[in-house]
Amino acid sequence: MYTDSHCHITCDELYSDLEGVLSRMKDVCRVMIVCTSEEEYLRAVPIRSSDPVRFRIAFGFYPGDADEVTEERLAFLEEALKSGNVDVLGEIGLDHHWPEPDRQTQKDLFVRQIRMANDYDLPIAIHMRDASQETLDLLRQEARTPIVFHCFSGSPETMREALKLNSLISFAGPVTFKNARHAPACVQACPADRILTETDAPYMAPVPMRGHRNEPAYVAYTTKKICELKNLPEKDLTSQIGHNFDSLFSRQS
């Protein structure tokens, strides 16, 4: 049974086919529904309520949306945290690939949300693109709860620094790509007890589904590739990944 530690099944593209998506992911027993807006979060709550063992919710404001995050929206996020329906605060972080939102706006939002996670003792899921050093520095300064580096794409050297931060490293479809730059080396260097698998659906479908809309069922392909790279039996690795995922919540009541 597989683990999808990061998927956006309540985004418009997948939510419009939710019944089909859920029916095809029968072999996925642990699912993190990642919500980057209030609407996505409200869609996720009844899914989580229907099977709280299988489904978890991550909710937070993505760095690319930092210009649009008002005090009112942050108050909504805090009320969601108070409700107990949010298991992880994320995905949050820094993205310097594009010139906007400006770096200070992203940083301010990132720090604000890390501190909220500290207040509510929630793990955080990190988006880190072209901003590795600054992201790691801020996490060293501010984070007090477990960290998941979502869809990790950095170098093995960056991964080693990330692993020092009470973190798990989550790998997605790019580990299956022929042109993957760092992913295979990172998988091989990452201890099995620090690995998570994800789809980031509907984005970045793994081979052999590359070019198609991604969905949680396809996490099997990524998992099989990780098993190949680490020369581990699939049964053993899927069990370990499930344990790694569950460990995020061991501190929560």
UniProtKB/TrEMBL annotation:
Gene3D superfamilies: Metal-dependent hydrolases. SUPFAM superfamilies: Metallo-dependent hydrolases (SSF51556). Coiled coil: none annotated. Keywords: Hydrolase, Metal-binding. Pfam families: TatD_DNase. It comes from the Bacteria. CDD domains: TatD_DNAse. GO terms for molecular function: DNA nuclease activity; hydrolase activity, acting on ester bonds; metal ion binding. A divalent metal cation 1 binds at H6, H8, E91, D200. Signal peptide: none annotated. This is TatD family hydrolase. It comes from Faecalibaculum rodentium.
